[in-house]
Amino acid sequence: MAAAAPEPGTAAPVTPAEYALVLARCQSLPPLQNTCLVNDYIENLLLAVLDYRVRPAVVGRAIGHYHRHVRPAVRDHEQLTALLAGHPDTEDGNRGIAGFLWGRPFWNRVALLRRLVAYFEKEGVTTQDALRGWAFRTDYPAFEGRVAGAGPVLFKQLVLRQGVETVKPDAWVHRFLYGVLGRPVGDLAAVAVLGRAAREAGLNACELNGRIWEHERGLAGDDAMRHVFLSHSDEDAAAAGAVCRVLEAENIRCWIAPRDAAPGPLAGESVMDGLIECPVVVLIFSAHAARSHRVLREAHFAAENGGIVLALRIEPAEAPEALSSGLGPDAWLDAFPPPLEGHVARRLVPAVQELLARDENDASTTPDEAGGGRVACAYCGRLNPATARFCDNCRYEFAQNAPQEFAGGDQPYLRWLEAHPGGFVLDTSRNKDPGYMVLHRAACHFIARYLPPAEPGAFTERAYIKVCAPDVEGLERWVKKHGRPDGSFSRTCSVCCPAG
Question: Which of 417, 442, 446 is nearest to 309 (CA)?
Answer without folding.
Answer: 446
